[in-house]
Design a protein that fits this description.
- The chain has 5 helices and 22 strands.
- By secondary structure, it is an alpha+beta fold.
- The chain has 2 domains: 247 residues, Thrombin, subunit H (Beta Barrel); 85 residues, Pdz3 Domain (Roll).
- A 6-stranded antiparallel barrel has the order 1-2-3-6-5-4. Strands 7-8-9-14-11-10 form a 6-stranded antiparallel beta barrel. It has a 4-stranded antiparallel β-sheet with strand order 19-18-20-21.
- A hairpin with a 4-residue loop joins β12 and β13.
Length: 346
């Protein structure tokens, strides 16, 4: 990191800690107040140091103005990582940097579209990690620390940024990007520190005792009010998400109708060739989604696609009328679009 950014980050952390000290140290204390301040300073710093060891930086694909990076944190000693959903997970390679600056290749285990969660896996042993509580952690008005790699200011083994704040309230929300695409649906923890910045999503919210409150949520922006929501996905939801078993591969049965999207792929290279679109039929879901010939299909419904054969396998598991997200590469851009399969005509 260039010196000016490193200095800025250190000053921001000092300002945040100083703010905490002003509001936390009782008035009327004489010389002993300096000792109290020093103790609080050391405590907050220690909480951050321990939490930072469990944090990771996530890097992947970008698309246009959508950033290709996020924050995450370890939730098991063998390398399970929770982060947010995003385009950065749809490329051919997802990289994770642990707090020691070591880079790891990551695989996507599972996603939750409604709550914008993703579970990744890296190959590590005996890693420091956050324990996930069954119930709520932190009450309204409690002090918290938001830890993330906002704006990607931290590099390699450099510690992430920290911001102090309080829990505003716990509530539930259903936010939509449009009538088809959900931005977030479920319980959440509203917080007052500003976390709605590029790269912050997937970061950790911890109490001053070092307990995990939740994961910093993906940016939700209101074009009507020109405001952004600062919130966290509660730890109880994260535990439920991690504990779920990976769903078995879907297959077509006699009760499930074969589906189609209206896409015809190039097959000159056989079924082992890349899934390039040859033709998009009129009046089909693919045309309504704006797909074009020469687009390369990257994933459908969170399932990565590398070949024509894999495309066919994924399509065979889709359900008529159940919307999924299709990701295609067009030139150097990654494009994400909702698409709803229809019943395949005989």
């Amino acid at each position: 990191m260039i010196p000016i950014l490193r200095s800025l980050k250190k000053n921001l952390v000092k300002v945040a800690i100083a703010t905490f000290l002003v509001w936390s140290v009782p008035n009327g204390l004489d010389g002993s107040s300096n000792l109290v301040q020093a103790q609080i300073d050391n405590h907050v710093s220690q909480v951050f140091v321990e939490a930072n060891q469990r944090m990771v930086k996530v890097y992947g694909a970008s698309a246009g103005r959508v950033e290709g990076y996020a924050t995450g944190f370890l939730v098991s000693d063998d390398g399970l990582v929770i982060t947010t959903q995003g385009v950065f997970l749809d490329g051919n390679r997802v990289r994770i940097l642990t707090s020691d600056g070591v880079e790891h290749a990551a695989s996507v285990i599972r996603r939750d579209r409604e709550r914008q969660l993703a579970l990744l896996k890296i190959d590590v042993e005996n890693a420091s990690y956050f324990s996930l509580a069954d119930g709520d952690v932190g009450d309204k008005g409690d002090w918290i620390i938001a830890i993330s790699n906002a704006f990607k200011v931290a590099d390699k083994e450099e510690p992430l940024s920290a911001t102090l704040g309080v829990i505003s309230l716990r509530t539930a929300m259903e936010a939509r990007l449009n009538r088809r695409d959900v931005a977030y649906k479920g319980e959440l923890v509203l917080i007052d520190p500003i976390t709605s910045n590029p790269g912050a999503a997937g970061g950790a919210i911890v109490t001053l005792q070092g307990k995990l409150v939740g994961m910093i949520g993906k940016i939700i922006n209101s074009s009507d009010t020109n405001t952004r929501l600062n919130y966290a996905v509660p730890t109880s939801i994260l535990k439920e998400f991690v504990a779920n078993e990976v769903a078995p591969s879907k297959s077509v049965t006699s009760k499930q109708s074969p589906v189609e999207l209206g896409i015809r792929l190039f097959t000159h290279g056989g079924r082992s060739g890349p899934a390039y679109i040859d033709r998009v039929r009129r009046g089909t879901p693919a045309q309504r989604a704006g797909l074009k010939p020469d687009d390369l299909v990257i994933s459908i419904g969170g399932e990565k696609i590398g070949t024509v054969k894999e495309y066919e396998q994924v399509i065979s598991g889709l359900t008529v009328g159940q919307e999924v997200i299709i990701v295609v590469k067009r030139g150097i851009d990654l494009i994400r679009q909702p698409i709803t399969p229809v019943e395949k005509k005989p």
